[in-house]
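pipeline stage [seq->struct] | target=UDP-N-acetyl-D-mannosamine dehydrogenase | organism=Pyrobaculum ferrireducens | residues=429
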Amino acid sequence: MKLCVVGLGYVGLPAAVVFASRGIPVIGIDIDHRKVEAINRGQTPIKEPGVDTLLRQAVADGKLTATTTHDALRECQAIIIAVNTPVEDGVVNLTQLKNALETAAKNLNKDTLVSIESTVPPGTTEKIAKPILEKSGLKTGRDYYLAHVPERIAPGRAIEELTTAPRLVGGVDPPSTQRAIELYTTINKNLYPTDATTAEFTKLIENTYRDVNIALANIFALMAEKLGIDVWEAIRLANTHPRVHIHLPGPGVGGPCLTKDPYILITAASVEHAKLIQLAREINRQMPTHFTHLVLTALKRHSINPREATVAILGVAYKGGIDDTRETPAQPIIHLLKQHVAEVRAHDPYTQETFGATPTTTVEEALENADAAAIVTDHPQYRQLDWKKLAPLMRHKIIVDGRRVVEPHTAIEAGYTYYAIGYGKAFKI
Ligand SMILES: NC(=O)c1ccc[n+]([C@@H]2O[C@H](COP(=O)([O-])OP(=O)(O)OC[C@H]3O[C@@H](n4cnc5c(N)ncnc54)[C@H](O)[C@@H]3O)[C@@H](O)[C@H]2O)c1
Ligand SMILES: CC(=O)N[C@@H]1[C@@H](OP(=O)(O)OP(=O)(O)OC[C@H]2O[C@@H](n3ccc(=O)[nH]c3=O)[C@H](O)[C@@H]2O)O[C@H](CO)[C@@H](O)[C@@H]1O
């Protein structure tokens, strides 16, 4: 059996190299010739731990080749579609997916499985993909097979999660579910069969649940700031209750999924009370502004004129331990701070991106003569910092912690004034 993977981005490429590593010959297809050329040279166009090694090996073994030509679909008995489904002005754009399906229909072999991994509105596989693919003259569930197998990988852990994280397998009919299980069982034994529309819906509600839960944590944080309470302590205590699992507040929710999937869900099924989900999105989108406000309040409380101040942003990636800056809250935070503050510097151990802030290569360089350290990302390296040793570098010893990377008592003992999202004790007079 040969597998074609259409779309070699953050989802398609890890899948391609993992299938190839299990001995399955894979043809990767992408319209971006630079990606295709890089892959054929054995170089990964995306940064994802482990992909580089598996890719080099797969190309060297002749198990993975990439092409821009969709005719290659003719050689495959299984096709994974992993093109992007971006949300624009709150509405999902399925153009890439429809184009990929049209070319698949023109090159579809009898008995082939088509698996859609892209995140899509419920009903897309059944009502959009199926009619397009049946233009081939083949009948679904009899002549060829169709499933939605949503991708659940978290960036930074893709390779591990592809083989271990539970996976939904939703065929449009039982034979399609069965064929999809046969394909995915070669890389992951933890499969949950269902139907395509349930799989599509489930993918969206998982990320929506996470976004709404984080929004709730963010509201609690704002309340704690008013009440003079430490929300981190309160959430830790609340979560000792066996039926409570409150997520963590922060300076914003970034990444390619939580910022997009709730909108796909709301638009797909417009029920009145979906405004809960909409509101959660708005709360999370507001957090970078709130964090910026905390930084400016901290400067004011220390009688520092922002126009003469330097703020060091620690962390540009959207979450800890990775270099991914898609939809990162650091971008609006830097943008807003630059409107008020003389100099905004940025440091990140994983990425060079600074969104217009002055780049720095070490934490020491970022903090030298700075008035405040503003921690945006929970990189593991930041948890190891010796704040006592760093203190003499700074002009003013102020920490504004978006992620509870520093324990308040550690900062205070090292001579800092400590502010944080949800740390109401900083404001208690
Ligand atoms: N990035 C993630 O971590 C993640 C996780 C789970 C689900 N998803 C979902 O997976 C899908 C893909 O996301 P991504 O981040 O990999 O996107 P991406 O933009 O990184 O990759 C998509 C790739 O598809 C290619 N492409 C577009 N049209 C094509 C066509 N007709 N034929 C061949 N190639 C084509 C693009 O050139 C690009 O390389 C989205 O629906 C996304 O919501 C993403
Ligand atoms: C349901 C779920 O788990 N889905 C995962 C999610 O992966 P992700 O990479 O987007 O990672 P998250 O951890 O959700 O982070 C997003 C942003 O939220 C911030 N955050 C997080 C937790 C918290 O308590 N408080 C916060 O503020 C964090 O800093 C970051 O900015 O979507 C992928 C694509 O669909 C999935 O495949 C993947 O399984």
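stage status: PASS
auto-comment: The CA atoms of residues 73 and 104 lie 7 Å apart. The domain at 3-189 is CATH 3.40.50.720 (Rossmann fold).
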